[in-house]
Amino acid sequence: MNAEIVAVGTELLLGQITDTHSATMARILAECGIGCRHRQTVGDNLDRIVKVLRQALSRADVVVCIGGLGPTADDLTRDAIALALDDTLETVPEIEERLRRWFASRNYTWVESNARQAQKPTCAEIIPNPNGTAPGLVARKNGKTVFALPGPRGEFDPMAYDSVKPMLETLGGGVVIHSRVLRITGVGESAVEERIKHLMESENPTVAPYAQPSEVHLRLTARSSSLSEAEALLDPVEAAIREELGSAVYGLNKTTLEEAVLSLLIARNETVSTAESMTGGGLGSRLTMVPGASAAYVGGVVTYTVGAKMALLDSKVATSASLTPNPLSPLGEERGLSEILLTNGPVSPETATLMAESIRAKLGTTYAVAITGNAGPTADVDGKAVGLVYIAIASVAGTSVEECKFRGIREDIRARAEQTALRLLRERLIPND
Prior knowledge:
Largest sheet: 6 strands, mixed
CATH topology of the largest domain: Maf protein
CATH class of the largest domain: Alpha Beta
CATH architecture of the largest domain: Alpha-Beta Complex
Number of helices: 14
Helix content: 25-40%
Number of strands: 19
Strand content: 25-35%
Distance between the termini: 46 Å
Structural class: alpha/beta
Strand order of the largest sheet: 2-1-3-8-7-6
């Protein structure tokens, strides 16, 4: 059993929208034991969509179409499926009536083009869409199965997982391909591979590393006749990896580093605040994206300019305590931020230290994180190189400062600084291996 995914939409070809739905569907197909050998993207042109679908049907048992189910003239997926299957369209009266009621209940003007969403090939069944107006379709003819799902994420995801996946599982012939992803920070891809290469020799389950920005993911995949058997195959492999890599494994599947950090803080009944310069509030944004973040994240400041640093953070903070001796840290001194900025500049370990200690004192948090640096694209007024970043972590135990030299474009440098700051904070929260 093999499948092909066809994403429909000129906006995908123009790069105006990133196609993440095809990746989601590929994962679902794999979990159902159905191989995906081809993926295609086609614009909103009836002849080209029909041609692509016929090609897909010639080499796949299952074809999954994504997008093009709306009411407008460029929503052509239903028409193309009917033509590709040598079928015709028919209107489903109860669907049209439901659509008319939906529009009336919201005082929306009904136009006849909306009735297109009530059409389907005669060989197809409707897949209900509780989150939108365009229902999905599943057409079966000549031993082939064609699914059609709507494009909006809030409609696609529920239909893909709740309606289409159970149908795909019955087509998969009882074979389940199940994966877990272990997320690792603080260890490079080559080092991870070296430490677990003996586990990568297995054919079932398989272990495959792949690099992500400032972290490594390990995908563990097992093939079996049931989900429970696949889970049983994965358990000892995951345990062996965790034993080998220890606390470098921070999460499973979709767990983010900010979620892992906040979970640790909440479990310890501790809090954190942030002071950011070059990242412009990106670290605080990542933390507040996590539901329940207010239990540990108190708040922060964005002091992007020297003036903002002076206005919001200037105070004399004793810096005699240090977590580890660091010749770059202003040990044994008590200086105001204005003096430090004048003497050392905004991109300096001294400035990062005082930013962290000041925001921690002002907000009364257990920890504080400060980021200052030059994200580029040119050297700053003090001649500090692009990619030079200082990250400070302050707590009652002292303040540590990390000097980082990141490469990449401005966006990459900012993202790596945020990721590194989270890693450094996490390392303060967990015992050493």
